[in-house]
Specification:
The chain contains eleven helices and eleven strands. By secondary structure, the protein is an alpha/beta fold. The protein has a domain of 148 residues: 3-Layer(aba) Sandwich (Rossmann fold). The strands form two sheets. Strands 6-5-4-7-8-11-10 form a seven-stranded mixed beta sheet, sandwiched between helices. The termini are far apart.
């Protein structure tokens, strides 16, 4: 109960902010109007901030236990594939070391990184998911979140925030504080939604063309039926500025796909958005499939992966594995 009250307080604080938390810009436009609030986009850095409606209520838990099997069935193979590439990209900078995965979910990245020789630790706020990752898979996972990461002993060569920042009411302060846990010359790796990805852009356009009546695709992107919905969507400019403002230097960026197009039926079930009309189902799935394929061809990916190092790494910190 206390955690939920604290979350409502932080959501209220986010809601009351008026300037862009990345560039301090005050010029913005409303780009979406949904039941639980509206989304504003900064006209300078293109950061989208969701302004939560006063009195909006949210479910108690992020994961519905009934749907854990579906969640794993869809995301497991998809994330293992994207994380396999991520580990290969990381090894261009570091071949081994201590890894901290904050918001590790079922531990898919931990599995891939451990097989590549990294020493891994995951933090995950869901007790049910921690039990699966730790007790059934034997992974080094603890219950915790970004705040508890600051209390961990030692330093880490790699800290991963995969699809985490967009859920936090104040991700920019969290980025600054995480430097205390990062080893000298370590890597912070963040994965965030890209508001300029083709699926995102088409979703906003459909909302606008419908005079704000078509809302459920944006509700899926913002996860408005979750107790930890997306409060931000980033442009590449916005996340680069956020990292620089927090004291990091971006050293590598690439884009990746946001959905597994060969399992869209399952993805809709996970999102609790199965349509009653099968013809509408097919239309939506084919539209997403085409958008992602075109996005791949033109480089408009719907997720961004960024590697960053502290701007001043030589501050007396030691290597995490030293």
């Amino acid at each position: 109960m206390g955690r939920r009250f604290a979350q409502q307080q932080t959501l209220q604080a986010h809601q009351d902010s008026s300037s862009c938390p990345v560039c301090d810009g005050v010029r913005h436009r409303t780009v979406a109007a949904l039941d639980r609030g509206h989304a504003d986009q900064c006209l300078t850095c293109r950061l989208v901030s969701f302004q939560v409606k006063k009195g909006a209520s949210f479910p108690e838990r992020y994961y519905d236990p009934i749907e854990l099997g579906l969640f794993e069935e869809y995301y497991g193979p998809f994330r293992r594939r994207t994380f396999t590439r991520l580990v290969k990209e990381i090894q261009r900078f570091l071949q081994t070391g201590r890894v901290l995965d904050i918001g590790c979910s079922f531990g898919w990245f931990l599995e891939v990184a451990a097989k590549a020789g990294f020493e891994v630790l995951g933090l995950e706020p869901s007790k049910e998911v921690v039990a699966i990752a730790r007790d059934k898979r034997g992974l080094n996972v603890r219950e915790g979140d970004v705040a508890s990461a600051e209390e961990l002993p030692g330093l880490y060569d790699i800290i991963l925030l995969a699809n985490v920042l967009e859920h936090l009411p104040n991700p920019f302060d969290n980025l600054r504080r995480l430097q205390s846990r990062l080893a000298a010359n370590g890597l912070l790796v963040v994965i965030v939604p890209n508001v300029d990805g083709l699926i995102h852009r088409l979703t906003y356009w459909a909302h606008w063309l419908s005079a704000n009546k078509l809302t459920w695709p944006l509700e899926v992107l913002f996860q408005t039926d979750s107790p930890s919905m997306h409060l931000y969507q980033f442009s590449e400019t916005a996340i680069r500025r956020a990292l620089t403002k927090a004291g990091y230097r971006v050293v590598h960026v690439y884009g990746q796909e946001v959905v597994e197009i060969d399992a869209l039926d399952l993805r809709q079930a996970v999102a609790h958005r199965m349509r009653r009309n099968r013809l509408a189902d097919i239309f939506i799935q084919e539209g997403v499939r085409c958008a992602q394929l075109v996005g791949r061809w033109v480089g408009r990916y719907d997720e961004l992966v960024l590697f960053a190092t502290p701007q001043e790494p030589d501050d007396g910190r030691q290597d995490g594995h030293g």
